[in-house]
Write a structure and sequence with these properties.
This protein is 35% helix and 13% strand. With 361 residues, it is of the alpha/beta class. α1 runs parallel beside α2, α2 packs across α4 and α4 runs parallel beside α7.
C-alpha cells in the first residue's frame, strides 16, 4: 500500500520529516549582496515551515563567489554566512520542519556582473566569455562544496542537497556532447559523473552521522542521454551514501523524450527504481494538487516537492494533506497577494521580470 502525504518519513541519517512534502529550492533574490541571509528570505522560508512542510530547503546557495547566478543569492562560501544560516536553522526547527541548504555553483550560467569574476565551466564557451576550469580548480571546487556542507552543519542546518541539475556547473560535467576533458573529469560516463562521487564522499568523510545529504538531478534536456540519467540515479539510490535523490522532472507526468521508455511516465520510470540502505526518492515537476502529489507516491516516489504552488500558498503542504481536492491557484496574481504569502519585494520583482504572466500588476 502506498504512503500518504501526511505519513512521516525516516532517512538513513538525520531527523525524520513530519510528512512527505518538501519545499523545492526556489530562486528568490531576497538575501544580501554579500550572500548573508536576508530578512525577507528568512520570513519566506519560516512561513513555509509554519505552513506544514516536512522539509524546508533554501534557494541554490553559492559555494564560490564566482558561481553566483542571481542578485540577492544566498551563499555558503565564507564563515561570514554561518550566523544567518544558524538563525534560519533555528527558525525552521522551531516551526516543526527539517532544514536543508541547496549547494550550487552556476558554472557557465554565473553572472560576472554580480561576482566581478569570469565565469568558468568544465569546457570553454567563448560566446559568453566562459573559460574552462583547470584540474586544480575542479579539485578546489570539490573542496569548496565539502567546506560549504561543513558550514551548514556547524550552523545547525539538518542537511544539504547538491544541485546537480538544470544545467548548472555539476550538471555541465554530465554534458556528453561538450565535456571532453582528459583529466578524469570528462569523456566517459564514469568520468563525467566523477565530481558528484568525490563531493559526496568528501561530505560524508567530514560531517556527522546525523547530517542529511541529497542530490538533485534532471533526466532530460541537458545533453546527456536519458539512459545515463537512469544509470546514475540507480547508482546513487543504491550506493548507500546519500539519504535521498531529488529528481527534478519539469513535468512528472509526461512521457520521456526517449520513446524506448514508453509507456512509463517520468515519475513511474524513477519511482520504480530499487533503493538500498533506506535511501529515498523525491520528485518535482508540475505537482499542483493533492491528487498530483498522491499520484507520485502511488507511482513509487517517497516524497514530493512543491515549487510554484508553494509560492502561491505558504500553507500548501497543510492544505494538500487536509483537503483531498485541493488544487493550487495559478499565476498571474497581484503583488498584494504575494505579500500575503510572505513573498517579499525582491522575490516579487523576480517573478515579474523573470517569468511572463506571473504578476498581474
Amino acid at each position: 500500500m502506498s504512503a500518504i502525504l501526511a505519513d512521516p518519513i525516516a532517512f538513513p541519517r538525520g531527523p525524520a520529516w513530519r510528512n512527505r512534502i518538501a519545499l523545492a529550492p526556489l530562486t528568490n533574490w531576497q538575501s544580501h549582496d554579500d550572500g548573508t541571509l536576508g530578512q525577507d528570505e528568512y520570513d519566506f522560508l519560516t512561513k513555509r515551515a509554519e505552513g506544514g512542510f516536512g522539509l524546508v530547503m533554501t534557494c541554490a546557495a553559492a559555494v564560490q563567489k564566482n558561481g553566483i547566478s542571481f542578485p540577492g543569492q544566498l551563499a555558503v562560501y565564507s564563515d561570514d554566512h554561518v550566523e544567518g544560516l544558524a538563525r534560519l536553522a533555528e527558525g525552521i526547527r522551531a516551526r516543526g520542519a527539517v532544514s536543508a541548504v541547496q549547494l550550487q555553483h552556476a558554472g557557465s550560467r554565473s553572472n560576472p556582473e554580480i561576482s566581478g569574476e569570469q565565469a568558468v565551466s568544465p569546457f570553454a564557451y567563448a560566446k559568453r566569455n566562459v573559460r574552462a576550469m583547470t584540474t586544480a580548480e575542479v579539485e578546489a571546487l570539490i573542496e569548496d562544496f565539502v567546506t560549504a556542507a561543513v558550514r551548514c552543519e556547524k550552523a545547525g542546518i539538518d542537511g544539504v542537497e547538491l544541485h546537480g541539475a538544470h544545467g548548472y556547473l555539476l550538471c555541465q560535467f554530465l554534458n556528453a556532447q561538450e565535456n571532453h576533458r582528459d583529466d578524469g573529469f570528462g569523456g566517459s560516463y564514469q568520468n563525467r559523473t566523477r565530481i558528484y562521487r568525490e563531493i559526496i564522499s568528501g561530505i560524508r568523510a567530514v560531517t556527522g552521522p546525523d547530517f542529511q545529504l541529497g542530490v538533485r538531478l534532471s533526466p532530460e534536456k541537458y545533453a546527456y542521454a536519458t539512459g545515463e540519467a537512469i544509470a546514475f540515479a540507480e547508482e546513487l539510490l543504491g550506493g548507500g551514501q546519500i539519504d535521498y535523490l531529488d529528481m527534478s522532472l519539469w513535468d512528472s507526468f509526461k512521457l520521456p523524450d526517449d520513446s524506448q521508455y514508453h509507456p512509463a511516465r517520468l515519475v513511474d520510470l524513477f519511482g520504480h527504481m530499487p533503493r538500498s540502505g533506506g535511501t529515498k526518492l523525491g520528485v518535482a515537476g508540475h505537482i499542483f494538487s493533492s491528487s498530483d502529489a498522491q499520484d507520485c507516491l502511488n507511482s513509487g516516489a517517497d516524497f514530493v516537492f512543491f515549487g510554484r504552488g508553494a509560492i502561491l500558498h505558504h500553507d500548501m503542504a497543510r492544505r494538500a494533506m487536509e483537503e483531498p481536492n485541493f488544487v493550487s491557484k495559478t499565476f498571474p496574481v497581484t503583488r498584494a497577494y504575494l505579500a500575503e504569502q510572505g513573498v517579499g519585494p525582491a522575490f516579487q520583482k523576480y517573478l515579474a521580470t523573470g517569468w511572463s504572466n506571473y504578476v498581474s500588476d
